[in-house]
Write a structure and sequence with these properties.
The complex is a heterodimer. Chain A is α/β, with parallel strands linked by helices. Helix content of chain A is 66%, strand content 7%. Chain A has two domains: 263 residues, no CATH class; 110 residues, D-Maltodextrin-Binding Protein, domain 2 (3-Layer(aba) Sandwich), CATH 3.40.190.10. Helices cover 68% and strands 6% of the residues of chain B. Classes of the chains: A alpha/beta, B alpha/beta. Chains A and B meet through α2, α4, β4, α5 and β5 of A and α2, α4, β4, α6 and β5 of B.
Chain lengths: 401, 400
């Protein structure tokens, strides 16, 4: 392989690409717009929807209100609850989401309040729609009000026996957050980010990879290039470097854009994350870039090897479509809460990069898993690159008919 | 406009597509295999990982363990907690996620419980706010402390000759009254709309590019335009094919979703007996019916855009960003608690995402479904109108 020749091929492809203004726009401008849109636009929408869901009054129904007049009156005054008149069809109405929850008081509820009666304590039933967010919210409101009332009843009972409140509350638990505020904010904001970085990195490599292989074939220029004095290896290397350049540019632009977005919308983000300031340090961006780099190499080489199989643009696209889905899944798996980077997962391609970037933006820098991720991705990238070289040597692949 | 001419264009493009074995594979076999694998794999992995997450590295540090021997002993018995020796650097270790939480008992905790029953003892738990695994650990520790606390209260009450019924005036129980298929439909409706919308779009992307920018690149656009077929007929014929491919892709996906949901329900039912994942034929039909105008909208919109491109590469440059524009509103179904209203029903894509969520959960708000169908249809007609206009403009067709 001759470096000078690789340089010639690379410069030729680069000039070709730079002449195409539109490719440039999508490479630079798109990530720049996407991240503000994602964090601020989508974030605002989500927050508005959530707070609206929280603020909306929950429609509930009280059954057997006359068994517990005091508590029923209390519930009617509770903010955020809209009490509907009791009706028979409450189960259907809950299932249809026209009613959020129903609370049912048994007969004899009021009579056993001041001292325990014979048998089990009366049971209050709450009917709701499991897995439905707004129904769950209504249940929480009901339970909060009921528990507050219960506490008062217990205090009254104990007072009648000469006991104090503290005696039945021997232990009080206090929670204290000790994580740095930017870590709390980071782990909230960085959930979707890794997914988009992986995706953009792939998309950035896809266009040129198709154009430089199947595109050449379709234009009928592949034979001309092969007949030139440049060696096969130099040719592959030059083409590979160009694909890598676009993929990396897209990835770098997205990382920078995310960094800049968080810097300029600090106040807004603070609001989003419940008062926790958040900023991305240059080190974080650099570390993220370090693991994205071998992944870019992997994508570029794999796409080159794959697209060379195709005779035409259309065929190449048929190959890259399914491959994109295969990439998306591990990238999305990084979004599942509770999935954490460990040595085993650090060896799974794509998923490892997704998890490492999540950790990095969450403020932790686990050095050994990062090293494993880097090295394993390098190894996969090496294999993919070798495959690409091999493909360009195979006449049956180059001149399929 | 002549229907027969449209038919000729459509049949020609259809034959072209059917001859291309690989496109067929992409639009039929991929959704057929990918959807179930995706669905089963993803749900399975999510359940498995979430369960493993609760158990993995359950490290909790106890500070001042000597002040609370009884409570520490019962904490040590829990198989969900692994107690690590006390150390100074617990805050840093929590920050590094090496330690999930730290519990601090005050000096003389258990002695004071006996000596001063009229004073509450304060236990502090240090944690990583909002971190999934840290929250799980805090929950477990709190559960153990509550149990301990209940034991203390029972002892105190019995010392006075009172039963523990005195602190239990009544109990509250939750009962789910929604039918099981709606309970699980809600979970399915969380993720399914997103994939359906994306498949509907990707199904239309390939033919839309091939029939516009592809013609230009192959140099066959001029030939077709010179034929006696009218421009409008040409656009409509091409459009019908793009829409057909998009519809077939989506229909396969809806069908496979229903089937794989059944399989997933069987496989994962053991984790949660209430989880019976099923998609009724009615829901599948309703979702398909709603996707119909969306497929028109995507097909016409994509054609209007990609006809501006001179070649494949340029078309791809335009359509890549477009994909993200579609992805974001499609993700609306992921946000919990968002409910449809008349205004949201007018936002394209987002409305389909939200309404299919409702339909999967067994809810059929007919008024809103009609509104969404109507509004999407209006957008679709506007897109189609735009596509026809683009094909009439010489400067778009013959850009240099």
């Amino acid at each position: 392989m001759k470096v000078a020749n690789v340089g010639v091929v690379y410069r030729k492809e680069l000039r070709d690409m730079l002449r195409d203004r539109k490719t440039l726009i999508s490479m630079f401008l798109f990530p720049l717009i996407l991240f503000p849109l994602m964090t601020v636009g989508f974030g605002t929408f989500e927050r508005r929807m959530r707070s609206r869901a929280r603020a909306a009054a929950s429609t509930v129904m009280i059954l057997g209100a006359d068994h517990a007049p005091e508590l029923a009156a209390r519930l009617r005054e509770t903010e955020g609850l809209e009490i509907l008149p009791a009706a028979e069809d409450y189960k259907q109405r809950i299932a249809d989401k026209r009613l959020r929850a129903v609370i049912e008081f048994p007969s004899g509820f009021g009579s056993a309040l001041l001292a325990p009666g014979a048998g089990d304590p009366p049971a209050v039933q709450i009917y709701f729609y499991r897995t439905e967010t707004r129904s769950q919210a209504a249940v929480t409101k009901l339970e909060d009000a009921v528990n507050k009332y219960k506490q008062e009843v217990i205090e009254k009972r104990l007072a009648s026996q000469g006991m104090t409140k503290a005696e039945i509350q021997p232990v009080e638990v206090k929670q204290e957050n000790v994580a740095a505020p930017e870590k709390v904010a980071g782990s909230r904001l960085a959930i979707m980010l890794p997914y988009f970085i992986v995706f953009l990195c792939f998309m950035g490599a896809m266009g040129p990879a198709i154009d430089l292989t199947a595109g050449e074939k379709e234009r009928g220029t592949l034979e001309t290039i092969l007949a030139s004095a440049v060696g096969r290896d130099d040719l592959v290397m030059g083409k590979f470097l160009l694909v890598l350049t676009t993929s990396l540019t897209t990835a770098v632009m997205s990382l920078l854009s995310f960094g800049v977005t968080t810097r300029f919308s600090r106040e807004y983000l603070e609001q989003m994350t419940g008062g926790h300031a958040f900023s991305v340090s240059a080190t974080t961006i650099a570390a993220a870039f370090l693991v994205v780099l071998p992944m870019s190499v992997l994508f570029s080489a794999a796409l080159l090897a794959l697209c060379l199989q195709a005779k035409s643009f259309k065929e190449a696209q048929n190959y890259t479509g399914p491959m994109m889905l295969i990439i998306i899944l591990p990238a999305m798996a990084g979004m599942i809460p509770g999935v954490e980077l460990n040595l085993g997962l650090a060896a799974v391609p794509v998923l490892n990069v997704s998890l490492v970037t999540k950790e990095l933006f969450g403020g932790t820098v686990p050095l050994i898993p990062i090293a494993v991720t880097f090295l394993s991705t390098c190894a996969y990238a090496g294999v993919a690159l070798f495959a690409a070289f091999k493909m360009f040597q195979t006449e049956s692949v180059l001149f399929r008919s | 406009m002549n229907t027969r001419q449209i038919g000729v264009v459509f049949r020609k493009e259809l034959m072209d597509t059917l001859r291309d074995r690989r496109t067929l594979i992409n639009s039929i076999v991929v959704p057929l295999i990918v959807t179930p694998v995706l669905m089963l794999g993803f749900i399975g992995a999510a359940i498995y990982i979430a369960r493993a997450a609760i158990r993995a590295n359950p490290e909790v540090m106890i500070l001042g363990a000597e002040h609370a021997p009884r409570l520490v002993e019962s904490l040590g018995l829990s198989d969900r907690i692994k107690i690590v020796p006390a150390a100074e650097d617990y805050i840093q270790r929590i920050n590094e996620k090496k330690l999930r939480a730290a519990v601090e008992f005050p000096r003389g905790f258990e002695e004071n419980l006996k000596a001063h029953p009229d004073r509450s003892q304060i236990v502090k738990i240090y944690w990583f706010e909002e971190e999934f695994r840290s929250r799980e650990m805090v929950r477990e520790v709190q559960r153990q402390i509550t149990e301990f606390s209940t034991r203390v209260v029972t002892e105190r009450l019995s010392a006075r000759g009172l039963s523990d019924q005195w602190v239990k005036p009544f109990t509250t129980k939750r009962a789910n009254v929604a039918p099981p298929e709606r309970v699980s439909g809600n979970i399915l409706g969380f993720i399914a709309p997103y994939f359906l919308i994306i498949l509907c779009l990707t199904g239309a992307i390939y033919p839309a590019m091939d029939l516009t920018a592809g013609e230009k690149e192959r140099g066959t656009m001029e030939t077709i335009l010179a034929s006696p077929v009218h421009r409008v007929e040409l656009v409509l014929g091409k459009f019908l094919l793009v829409m057909l491919v998009s519809m077939v892709t989506t229909a396969m996906a809806v069908g496979m979703f229903a089937l794989s949901a059944l399989a997933a329900g069987r496989m994962f039912g053991q984790f949660d007996p209430e989880l019976v994942l099923t998609v009724s034929a009615k829901a599948a039909a309703a979702v398909f019916f709603l996707i119909l105008p969306l497929a028109v909208f995507f097909s016409a919109g994509l054609m209007a855009i990609s006809v501006m491109a001179r070649n494949y590469r340029e078309a791809q440059t335009y359509l890549g960003p477009l994909m993200f524009v579609v992805i974001l509103p499609a993700m609306a179904s992921f946000i919990p608690g968002v409910e449809l209203n008349t205004r949201l029903a007018l936002v394209p894509i987002l409305n389909i995402s939200l309404v299919s969520k409702e339909v999967f959960a067994g809810n059929y708000p007919w008024g809103i479904i009609g509104l969404i169908f109507g509004s999407t249809l209006a957008y679709a007609v506007a897109a189609l109108f735009l596509a026809v206009r683009q094909f009439r403009r010489e400067d778009v067709l013959f850009r240099t």
